[in-house]
Amino acid sequence: MNDFRTQQAGSTSPRCFTIIDKTSGSGVTSGTINWYLKNITGANAGKWWRNSDGTWQASETANAMTHQSDGHWTITLSATPWVDGDVSLEYAKSSTDIHVPVSRMLNVAYTSDADSSGNVSLSSAEHDTIASAILDLSNGVETSVTLKQALRLMVAAAAGKVSGAATNTITFRNIGDNKNRIVATVDVYGNRSAITTDLT
Predict the structure, then answer these.
(1) Are strands 192-197 and 63-64 parallel, antiparallel or unpaired?
(2) Chain-centre distance of CA 34, in angstroms?
(3) Which of 7, 10, 31, 181 would bridge with 174, disulfide CB 3.0–4.6 Å?
(4) Which CATH code fits 2-109?
(5) Which value, to the nearest 10 degrees, does the dihedral of the CA atoms of residues 22, 25, 26, 28 take?
(6) What is the pLDDT of residues 69-120, one digit of tens each?
(7) Structure confidence at residue 130 (pLDDT)
(8) Directed axis angle between helix 124-135 and helix 147-159, to 10°?
(9) What is the rounded distance in angstroms from the CA atom of residue 174 to the CA atom of residue 161?
């Protein structure tokens, strides 16, 4: 049995396989079951992981697993063998060849500082980069209006100084009170007939 899945780079989570006796169809609960990891691509392509010292070996290397229940066997990793971009083959087998072959192809994907819940920690600079990308996204609100520019207009209209409210020209200042953010031409009912804005 074989499947293909994504493996988180840098992880040291235990590995688990269910081993089935090929004659009886029952779970293997005794004997010696070994886990193997072979890199298919990457710097250690063609080598096998040795869990006892966390190194790569030139020949097939067995790593003893521990029986848990029924046919389920696990092994705890001493270090992480998972490197971003690698493709690896992991499999488990009985030392006496009584098992149904079982394996997984793993595509190793990198997530920086991933914790056990799969969350990712970002640096302050990375937070700023993401925020800037959103705030300055072209046409983010409407054509030719970014989110940052729209927020500038909203803040001025809601909290900026206002002058000319009793005239045909109403002016809304920016929060810093150093530029006219919105200049509106209105009639006696406050209906706007023209708008000039400064989005900088």
Answers:
(1) unpaired
(2) 32
(3) 181
(4) 2.60.40
(5) 10
(6) 999 999 999 999 999 889 999 999 999 999 999 999 999 986 555 554 556 6
(7) 92
(8) 80
(9) 7
Three-state DSSP class for 151?
helix
81-95 in b/e form (b: 16+ CB < 10 A) is bbbeebebebbbbbe
Interior CA angle at 136 toward 130 and 142, to 5°?
Answer: 125
What is the structure's pLDDT at 102? Answer: 93
User: What is the pTM (predicted TM-score) of this model?
Assistant: 0.56
pLDDT tier at 124, thresholds 50, 70, 90:
confident
Query: Can you name the residues that pair with 91 across neighbouring β-strands?
Result: 36, 103
CA–CA gap between residue 101 and residue 28 (Å, rounded): 12
- The residue extents of the domains of the chain are 2-109, 137-197
| Residue 65 to residue 186: CA distance in whole angstroms | 80
